[in-house]
Prior knowledge:
Blueprint: E1 20-24, E2 28-32, E3 46-50, H1 52-61, E4 67-74, H2 77-88, E5 92-98, E6 104-110, E7 116-121, H3 132-137, E8 146-151, H4 159-175, E9 178-182, H5 187-190, H6 196-205, E10 208-212, H7 216-220, H8 234-245, E11 251-254, E12 259-264, E13 267-272, H9 284-297, H10 302-316, E14 343-344
Parallel strand pairs: 1-4, 1-8, 2-6, 4-5, 7-14, 8-9, 9-10, 10-11
Antiparallel strand pairs: 2-3, 6-7, 11-12, 12-13
Helix pairs in contact: 1-9, 9-10
Amino acid sequence: MSGFQGQGQGHGRARGSFERVVTVGEGLAVFRSGPDEPLWPAAPVAVGTGGAEANVAMTLAHPGVPVVRAGRAAADPPARRIVRELRAGGVTVRTVVDPDRPTGLLVKDVRTDGRTAVSYHRAGSAGSALTAADVDALDLDLAPGTLVHVTGITGCLSDSAAESVRHLVTRAREAGALVSFDVNHRPRLWGDRPAAEAHRELAEAADLVVASVDEVPLLVGSAVGVDTRAPGLEPAELAADAWVGAGHRPGVVAAGAAGACAGDGGDRAPVVAHEIDGVDTVGAGDAFVGGYLAGWARGEVLTGRLRLASLSGAAACRHAGDWEGAVDPDGLGEGPGSGGDPVIR
């Protein structure tokens, strides 16, 4: 487990409770066209905010979990909007301001087949220039009672951002905080660079790991023996068994519209997805993680955490924004999920 120092490790590490969450990452400006119109001829274009860590923070703040979203931010109007929306949602925001770089951008373009194509414009952004010194300057509370949440996205933005995440996790472990890691692998952002080793290093240092069925092989090797085309929850359950069998615990394996499976020591729990008419799945995984962490924070058992995660993830899919649906789950019925992913990543 190279690169990390401090107490404990992900394999069988004692796990506790937490009262607050700290997450570090890049806030994004989000541009999107209407539900039935491609971006290029659209007259009105909606502007919103996003970013994996910001989406998780908004999902946590809604039920009242104290949460800090920190990072390096630009000095431009989109950055001001991101800070305003996070604070309005109950999130505490801490930033190191970079006056020379812009805010990163996420563009959603509705295709003629009804699906949404996503493109990233993050190279050279303020958030991508995050440094380990920035992490120290943010003066984050990493004492026992804190959970530090990181994702595989921030570390792929630049070498300095990757080092920043490792530095944050090392500091958190040394200070006695818990760590959660959402793999959140984005091939377009990684490009040709190898990602598996970086993901494994963070996974081994975490108290909780969240991964999709497709991401588990990155953590335990390609020979997992999971047929991702199998129906229902079977792929998630098999992937969760592979994860635990490799000596890791706890972990949550998500299977999109089919649901998810979680394992914690000797406990194992599946959950089917809520039945919805999905509008946009961007941010659904972040909402799922936020719901799970919210359940953990309030002392829910494993099945209760998964139910909250499923509810949050499904609710996020009902809105074209990245987090807006997750904070408005009212009226969402239970039932097995159906349909495919309407977003091309």
